[in-house]
Design brief:
mainly alpha
Length: about 70
């Protein structure tokens, strides 16, 4: 996942705000962490205020929902 795609998807989820949206945000952040790294995830969390809205904490490792092994 690219950083721009993660930004776009997170912006959509912040605008809608709901339980399913939190799960999708977690999915997006998990994929971003796997593809780019923790720093990118922390930047998205801060940029969209996810730490305030949904309890996403910068520095926390977010597990991928789907593991392609």
């Amino acid at each position: 996942m690219t950083l721009e795609k993660a930004r776009e998807m997170t912006a959509d989820q912040v605008a809608i705000a709901g339980g399913y949206n939190q799960a999708l945000t977690r999915f997006v952040l998990g994929e971003l962490q796997n593809d780019i790294g923790q720093n990118a995830v922390d930047n998205i969390i801060h940029e969209f205020g996810r730490h305030e809205l949904r309890g996403f904490v910068p520095g926390t490792k977010i597990e991928r929902i789907i593991n392609n092994k």
